[in-house]
Amino acid sequence: MELIDTPNPNAKKILVDQQTEDISNSLNKVEGVLSVFVGPGFITVTKENNFEWEVITEDIVNIFDKL
User: Which of 12, 28, 27, 22 minimizes the C-alpha distance to 60?
Assistant: First the structure.
């Protein structure tokens, strides 16, 4: 699992090849996550302005480690 930079510094893309419904529900619960967009083969996570990626990334990695 890798967070990929996007043109928006508050958004990162994650490439996925598994069922994303449970993942997106979990990602929406992460403190600092503003929105989660699910597309074919990817998820885009947008963070709130007052949060840093370092804090959010750890929680996102933990969600993917549990799969």
Answer: 27
- 38: CATH: 3.30.1370.70
Tokens of residue 24, six digits:
């997106």
Rounded Cα gap, residues 44 and 47, in angstroms: 10
- At 63 the pLDDT is 92
Quick one: which of 33, 2, 32, 10 has its CA closest to 24?
33
Task: Quote the number of domains for the chain.
Answer: 1
Structural domain including 42 reads 3-65
pTM of the full predicted structure?
A: 0.89
- Token digits for 55? 């804090």
